Amino acid sequence: xxxxxxxxxxxxxxxxxxxxxxxxxxxxxxxxxxxxxxxxxxxxxxxxxxxxxxxxxxxxxxxxxxxxxxxxxxxxxxxxxxxxxxxxxxxxxxxxxxxxxxxxxxxxxxxxxxxxxxxxxxxxxxxxxxxxxxxxxxxxxxxxxxxxxxxxxxxxxxxxxxxxxxxxxxxxxxxxxxxxxxxxxxxxxxxxxxxxxxxxxxxxxxxxxxxxxxxxxxxxxxxxxxxxxxxxxxxxxxxxxxxxxxxxxxxxxxxxxxxxxxxxxxxxxxxxxxxxxxxxxxxxxxxxxxxxxxxxxxxxxxxxxxxxxxxxxxxxxxxxxxxxxxxxxxxxxxxxxxxxxxxxxxxxxx
Length: 350
Description:
Layout: H1 4-13, E1 18-21, H2 50-53, H3 68-77, E2 82-86, E3 92-97, H4 108-111, H5 135-146, E4 161-164, E5 170-175, E6 194-197, E7 202-204, E8 209-210, E9 213-214, E10 216-219, H6 230-240, H7 261-278, H8 284-302, H9 306-319, H10 324-339
Antiparallel strand pairs: 1-2, 2-7, 3-5, 3-6, 4-5, 4-10, 8-9
Helix pairs in contact: 1-3, 7-8, 7-9, 8-9, 8-10, 9-10
């Protein structure tokens, strides 16, 4: 199935929610002028946006649909657009196994499998003696830790839809093991070079084509992807559960002569901002940018490291549904701008 429109319509008929991506950048096609944030204000909200009914593709993954008329309008206007699958609305998760030639993590005991300390795992004996070249190795390590002697069932009930990526990686599409999951991507992927796309995140559809090459559908039934083996379902849920809302400290006073007051003040700003971001349906980049700008202003006064603040901002962005790249680019740019206008909190916050 070589034509993008045919592929998109086929997937939609199977109940998979699709939307178009640029074949060059693999990013959603841009919003129309009415839906772009302007003057610090968000454009149309996804739940009331009139552009979608008129045939526009605004709002990226949030616009994903199974409506054949809308899909036909989209790919008639952009016939070479790549086809993307919205994971959560389609009832799926994507395990994205990379084979990049990156240097292994500096602290492998805690970074090969984020959230798992290999140094304290009895089942991880001998992990230091292994070579870890890419995501295939770290996923095998996780399987050995949690899956027993036969961690990858081959029966139809557990068989994923698999696709080879142009860079030599592998995509595995499974039934989602739980609702309300978030993606697990750097800095906290499922494993080193193994990301999980879930909820309001997306992946390239098996069979689609980009400027980099073809996402070749190798095996599995697109109509009935397999369910995860139990051990992997538990690990996916652990890695992709939403972050609990931060607890606000009562009667907080940010400016204190000692005791780390300025640092706590900025951490509270970041926690409250992350909580607000997690509730948004649209305008997340604008809100993240405003939060990062404010954090940049308070950075010097707080005494926190820029790395710590950037990590919190990126996590807040990705937990809200932005991709890691979108969150990092937005946060770094706005933080740098904020640093040029230092701020000092002078009022008590309760």
